[in-house]
Write a structure and sequence with these properties.
single chain; mainly alpha; 46% helix; elongated
Length: 89
């Protein structure tokens, strides 16, 4: 649980950083793929989440193709447990 909280906090921090850049007068000149790559070279902010952001910006520079849907990974821990059938006699 704590690990998830840390990841959510990091995602929020990345989103706020990209948001500040996007709202700046320099936004039209920024390549967020390169920004994510640069940030991922630092010892403090380097992470797998930032690598995923870098890949996403490489595919869609302003994430205009982003959809609000996540495919199910098939991970048994990400799905609700199956209910056993109740047998009535």
């Amino acid at each position: 649980m704590i690990h998830n909280g840390i990841e959510y906090g990091m995602m929020q921090a990345y989103a706020e950083g990209f948001g500040i850049l996007e709202d700046s007068p320099y936004a039209q000149h920024l390549d967020y793929n390169r920004v994510s790559h640069l940030w991922n070279q630092g010892s403090v902010v380097r992470s797998w989440l930032l690598e995923l952001a870098e890949q996403a910006f490489a595919q869609s520079p302003r994430l205009e193709d982003l959809q609000g849907h996540v495919e199910d990974s098939g991970d048994p821990y990400s799905r609700p447990p199956r209910r056993r059938p109740v047998h009535r006699y």
